[in-house]
Amino acid sequence: MNIAMDRRVVSDLDPFCEEFRADPYRHYAQLRTLGPIVWLEKHQIWVVQHHAQIKEVLTDWQRFSNAGGGGLTNYFKEKNWRQPSIILEVDPPEHERTRQVMMRALNAKALKAMRAGFERVAAELVDAALEKGEIEAVADLVQPFPLTVFPDAVGMPKLDREIMLIYGGIVFGAFGPRTPWYDELMKRAEEVSGWIDERCDRSALTPDGLGAAIYASADAGDITHAEAKLLVRSFLSAGVDTTIDSIGLCLRALAENPDQWQVLREDPSLARAAFEEATRYDSSSQSLFRTTTQAFEFAGQQLDKHEKVLVLIGSASRDPAVWDEPDRFDIRRRISHQIGYGTGIHGCVAQMMARLEGEVFFRAIAEKVRTLEPTGPSQLRLVPGLRGLSSLPLALTAHSSGH
Ligand code: OVM
Q1: Cα(173) to centroid(ligand 1), Å
Q2: Domains of the chain, earliest start first
Q3: Sign of the alpha-carbon dihedral angle for 132, 135, 139, 140
Q4: Ligand 1: which atom is nearest the Cα of residue 86?
Q5: Residue 386: is it exposed, middle or buried by C-beta count within 10 angstroms (0-12/13-18/19+)?
Q6: Bridge partners (DSSP) listed for residue 391
Q7: Cα of 239 from ligand 1 centre, angstroms
Q8: Which residues line ligand 1 (CB under 6 A)?
Q9: E strands along 142-272, which residues?
Q10: Which of 87, 91, 94 for mutating ligand 1's site (highest number of atoms within 8 Å of CB)?
Q11: Of 185, 192, 245, 305, which shows the fewest CB atoms inside 10 Å?
């Protein structure tokens, strides 16, 4: 069979509109029926939605570049709101150096050293939530966990951490289209970026955290000190909202699937598996972008040079070609094709840290909580570039033995 090269499969779906984002999985399924790569009229971008093509795109950095920017803005054609990330928004060979430095900072020994602090914070938060009984889980339990343990791990002081959430909204909001919501948020961009930049300075960091480890690589000559500052900025950009939203969605999945909650409660050692399944089933990072470096044919379509490609990893995670009953949340599922952290040279560099946060958090919940029930509807936080909750009302009761 021959597909005419100039005939695009087009769709008027808009992955950034509220209606799509309210129930993305139904729309992903619809997109998957249209073909392996589809042209989205509204934004004039390509979109890939199957696990197979997504894996192909993410492992082909020569043709699918990151230097065009992490979001909808095409750096080959437009200027970005901030200096681009020197790890996310670059290609090899530049990328290798900065990636190495981040990987070294996040080594197994460093992660192991984080666990005890994570456990202490998780235990305190879960105990406080149980004390209250009825909670707004996003504000009371979910947000404070990464918002405490992540800056601690980086080596930041304990002040003003709420600004980090505004900063995260700006960073991830910038991945989507320009909207009145975003313009409003951007009014604070200068002030908030300034605050963040100061926090990335060596003098603002403790000598034993991830930040210090990055500056040590600069001392060793692997990167410049200016680059070290930008890599610390990458930690602060990518490390907080992502885990808050993924942990929140996992908690909701457990509350809404009592059978799975029961399984976890009876065997808290499944905490890491539960978070892994939630990273497939419903998690913060639904999409990312690549930009073509040249004109070429891909999956039967003719792509042009410097075109944006939206990569729906959240759709790959529900692709029935790869997963049995993809729409079922099953914490005992064996996950061998995880795509929720991306893959390839830009696969989430801190994914082992994210997993550690999830494991520790859900282990504390499983060990301390007996019942976990929604007391009202949850609400989505509609920051383009991330999926997460703004509200998750829950009622918790403790294990009688513990309290
Ligand atoms: C960065 C950055 C920002 C947002 C996300 C991200 C998912 C990286 O500044 O490097 O990775």
Answers
A1: 12
A2: 1-65+283-328 (3.30.43.20), 89-282+342-398 (1.10.630.10)
A3: positive
A4: 10
A5: buried
A6: 379
A7: 8
A8: 85, 87-88, 171, 234, 237-238
A9: none
A10: 87
A11: 305
pLDDT of 2: 46
* Alpha carbons 38 and 158: distance in angstroms, whole number: 46
- Burial track 264-280 (b if 16+ CB lie within 10 A, e otherwise): bbeeeebbbbbbbbbbb
**pTM attached to this predicted model:** 0.97
The amino acid at residue 181 is W
3-state helix, strand, coil in the chain (%, to 5): 50, 10, 40
- Buried b / exposed e along 218-245 (16+ C-beta atoms within 10 A): beeebbeeebbbbbbbbbbbbbbbbbbb
Distance, CA 170 to ligand 1 centroid (Å)? Answer: 12
Residue with CA closest to ligand 1 atom 7: 238
User: Which parts of the chain have pLDDT scores under 70?
Assistant: 1-6, 159, 401-403
Q: Letter for the amino acid at 90?
A: V
E-only strand ranges, 266-366: 288-292, 296-298, 301-303, 308-311
pLDDT at 402: 46
**What pLDDT, on a 0 to 100 scale, did the predictor assign at position 384?**
86
Q: How far apart are CA 249 and CA 390, in angstroms?
A: 10
- Model pLDDT, residue 277: 98
What spacing in Å lies between the alpha carbon of 292 and ligand 1's midpoint?
Answer: 20
Secondary structure letter of residue 12 according to DSSP:
-
Q: Which residue type does 387 have?
A: R
Of ligand 1's atoms, which has the minimum distance to the CA of residue 285? 7
The pLDDT, as a whole number, for residue 401 is 56
Q: Please name the residue whose Cα sits nearest to atom 11 of ligand 1.
A: 238
pLDDT at 158: 86
